[in-house]
Every structure is written in C-alpha cells, then in structure tokens.
Design goal:
The chain has 324 residues and is α/β, with parallel strands linked by helices. The protein has helices spanning 17-31, 47-53, 73-87, 98-111, 220-229, 237-241, 272-275, 307-322, and strands at residues 2-7, 10-11, 14-15, 35-42, 59-64, 91-95, 115-119, 121-125, 128-135, 140-145, 151-155, 171-176, 205-209, 232-235, 262-266, 283-288, 301-304. The protein folds into two domains: 2-182, HUPs (Rossmann fold, 3-Layer(aba) Sandwich), CATH 3.40.50; 205-322, Rossmann fold. α3 packs across α4 (98-111) and α5 packs parallel to α8 (307-322). The longest helix is centred in the C-terminal third of the chain and has 16 residues, at 307-322.
Amino acid sequence: MTRFLIFVEQKGDEPRKASLEILSKAYGLAVSGDASVEAVAVGPVSENVKEKVLPYVSRFVQIAGPGLDSYTAEGVAAALGIYAQESKPDVILAGATNLGRDFFPRLAVLLGSGIASDATEMDIRDGAIHFVRPMYGGKVLSEVSFTATPALATIRPNAYPVTQPGEARGEFVTKEVDVSGTIKTKVIRVERQDRKRADLTEAETIVAGGRGMKAQENFQLLEDLAEVIGATVGASRSVVDAKWRDQEDQVGKSGKTVSPKLYIAAGISGAIHHIMGMDTSKVIVAINRDPEAPIFNVATYGIVGDLFEVVPALTAEFRKRLAR
C-alpha cells in the first residue's frame, strides 16, 4: 500500500482547488485499496479548511511553531521535512502552483529525494508510483518512476476533477516544531489583491489575448467575453512586456502554466514560450487573421478572421444561449 502525504495549500480560509484535486485523486486510490492518504498544512488552519479536507484523509496534520504563521520557503520546507522524516510517507505531493514550485525543490534537497515537477498524471502500477510530465514545451511526455522513497511531485492544476468524498472523517492533530533557526527571510507585510475570477492556474476557462489586440483598451473585448462565460483573462508575454496587462496575467514559460477545460486565444501568434504554458488545455480555440499562425498547430478549433469581429460575435452568441 502506497502512503501519500499531501500538502494542503490555503487561500484565505479555503483550501486551494489544486490541493482538493490531488486529494480527490489520492482518495480514489485509497478507496480501491491501493493507498492511504494523509494531509498536512503548515501554519494556521481555518475550521473551513478542516471541514473540507478531513473527509478525504485518515489524518490531517497541522504543523505549527515559531516563524510558521507567515509563508516562507525555508520555514515550510524545513517543517514539512521534519514531519516527513518521522512519518516516512512513500509519496509527497503538492500543487504545481507558485507556492508549490517555490518550496518543493527545497524540500526535495532536504530529504535527498527525486522530484517530478508539473506532472499531469499519476498512477500506481506493480507497487510503484508513476508520473507523467510534459517536457520540451509539451512535445514529449515523460513517464517518471522512483526507486527510492519518498517520491516527490508537484501536480499541475486542473489535472484531475474535484470529487466528493465519503462521509467518513479523519482525525485532526497539531504538531509543534521549531524551525525558526533555519528561516533567513523576514516577512514585512502580505498584500493580497482581490480578484473577482479564479486564478489563471485554477481557472476552468481562459480567454487570452496577444499583440493582435493592438492596444490595452481593446482587452475590454476579452473582459466582456470572460464576464459572459465565467472565464479568467490571460495574456501573452509581449502584451505584458508592453504593460497592457499585469505580469500575473501572463501565460507561458516565463509566466503561468495553465490547463483549463477551454482556452480561447485571440490575436496570439503561438510563439513556443507561450505554447509551453497552455498546450495541455483540454480544448483550444484560436482566433487569428493569419492562417499560417503557429497557434493553429495546437488548436482544437481555429477561426481565421478579424478578432475585432469574431470576439464580439462570440460574446453576443454566448450571452443569447446562456440566457435561455
């Protein structure tokens, strides 16, 4: 039986959707008898997070102590490393979010373990854990397995659906550790930006624009479409470099990697560094005037046309259909 330890990331008083997706997958393996599942969070844990996580696991551990009230990569990695050395899980998982990508490599070094980053699939076969992760801009899918434990992996958001667990509840326990001596970073303040829509990494629908939008004010066309279909607006690197959108809206190798159910690319040519950040989207709709644009090579559906005509027409049609 494979013993999973899953790091639960929190956003306010909610568990991140990426964490619930991993818990859902591991819970399914546990129900089939192939695994046992334990969750861990570092720092304060709200009652709401407890309520939502406990049905998936046999045990939910809160690691608390000096220096752990605010996130630092050093503190979280050290605290989780201490607990992992005691509990000896076979697999440690976290979401491939900005936070997971920040501290998980440090945790791997502390444990002397290998790590599979940004995995899109995982399975247990012949008693071993296997992961699939894209490489070389998604041109190759690599299957990774481990010969030693613990195996570490970050799982790309939207790789799995969130499923409803059973009625059973695990136990919640708190473990105190002191890792203050390892923390070299001092948190001065934390600034949070209120967003009406889901973060790009967790969004199920994304409408993204490129240089073909021609001007910053033209992104209102995409905002209008996103409002109708409940999407999050993204952008290519050239748009962010031009200061038309914030850096947190950037999709691509130097931005965010996304895997939505639907990705609408308007005026995006399809440079490789952008493709690397969105090619695992379930359905890709490309809108571009150039029929030779590289974006059409990865698109599920392509619309060759003027986005300033196509996008408003899509918005009007979606509004009409969704109003029924």
